[in-house]
Design brief:
It contains one helix and nine strands, in the order αβββββββββ. The protein is mainly beta. An eight-stranded antiparallel β-barrel has the order 1-3-4-5-6-7-8-9.
């Protein structure tokens, strides 16, 4: 991880620790989730054929920790995924499995915006996104972006809540300049921002 990115992560984590330790925040929760992600962007061919190299449909696994009082909470989420590399066009998709390994860290602020029924909470989560991408036969690289999520928390009894989450995130392309130019008359590709939408189901436990 580049030094500059490491410093940013350290600053955000230190700030989150200070807030978490405040007496204003009293309820700790830990959680785990499993979900699916879909990508668009990342690259676009320069020949006008609307084909793109991009990560393809990974299953995601996440763990998280948050501290909440009233309407507000601060948290830290960590996600892991292995994704295929796909060449996607208007009519077909060609993919190679296991090309990407993605580790994501996302400090976030969550705000409850509505209560539905008996104890169900509808919340919005926002924050920065720090990612490490490992690509087969290429150097690992770091990316910094932003993410937003909406969640519905449903009490399950005792200290457990079920949660349904849907989110969107954006980072720079996971590819480097010139990395997709194969030569020999093959199409060339411009890099684009990588957009991601996700859906997950999870379980939270109040400590």
């Amino acid at each position: 991880m580049p030094t500059s990115l490491g410093r940013r992560v350290a600053i955000v984590l230190a700030a989150a620790t200070i807030v978490w330790c405040s007496p204003l925040f009293g309820q700790w929760r830990v959680g785990a989730e499993v979900g699916a992600a879909r990508f668009w962007g990342a690259s676009l061919d320069t020949d006008g054929n609307q084909t793109s190299f991009r990560p393809y449909r990974p299953t995601t696994f996440g763990i998280g920790l948050e501290r909440q009082t009233g309407r507000y909470a601060v948290g830290l989420q960590v996600h892991y995924a292995k994704a295929s590399l796909a060449l996607e066009g208007p009519e077909r998709v060609i993919s190679a499995e296991g090309a990407f390994t993605i580790l994501s860290i996302s400090p976030e602020l969550a705000v409850r915006i509505a209560t539905l029924g008996s104890g169900n909470q509808f919340r919005v989560h926002v924050g920065p996104l720090f990612e490490r991408w490992e690509i087969v036969d290429q150097d690992a690289r770091a990316r910094v972006g932003a993410q937003g999520t909406v969640s519905l928390d449903v009490p399950l009894g005792g200290r457990f809540d079920g949660v349904v989450l849907a989110g969107v995130a954006v980072t720079p392309s996971p590819f480097e300049e010139g990395e997709l130019d194969l030569g020999g008359g093959a199409p060339t590709y411009d890099l684009r921002a990588l957009w991601r939408r996700s859906f997950a189901l999870g379980l939270r436990y109040q400590l």
